Amino acid sequence: MKELKKTCDLCGLAVETIGFNLHTNEGDKEFCCEGCKGIYQMLHEDIILDTADKDNEAN
Ligand SMILES: [Zn+2]
C-alpha cells in the first residue's frame, strides 16, 4: 500500500484527501481541506501561481 505522509501546510494535520493543493513560488502546498486551502490562498496570494482548472472560464 502506498501512503502519502503529507501534512497540511496550514494547520499541520494529516492530509487524507488529495486535491486541496496550490502551486506557489515556494513549491506545491497541500491542505487537509478546502477551508485551509482558502485561508492560505488569502494570506499568501502574492506567491500563489496558476491555480489551474480555469479552462471553462473562457469568454
Ligand atoms: Zn488544514
Sum up the structure in keywords:
alpha+beta, about 60 residues
Q: What does the model show?
A:
By secondary structure, the protein is of the alpha+beta class. The protein has one domain (1-51). Helix content is 17%, strand content 14%. Strands 1-2 form a two-stranded antiparallel sheet. Strand 1 and strand 2 (27-30) form a beta hairpin. It is globular, with a radius of gyration of 12 Å. The relative contact order is 0.21. The mean pLDDT is 85. Bound molecules: zinc ion.
Report the helical percentage.
10-25%
**Distance between the terminal alpha carbons, to the nearest Å?**
44 Å
Q: What is the molecular shape?
A: globular
Total number of domains:
1
Number of strands: 2
Which structural class best describes the helix and strand composition? alpha+beta
Ligands in the model, by name, code or SMILES, are:
zinc ion
Helical stretch tally: 1
Please state the CA-atom Rg, rounded to the nearest Å.
12 Å
SSE series: EEH
User: How would you write the strand order of the largest sheet?
Assistant: 1-2
Q: Report on the biggest sheet.
A: 2 strands, antiparallel
Mean pLDDT rating: 85
Parts with pLDDT < 50 across at least 5 consecutive residues: none
Percent of residues in beta strands: 5-15%
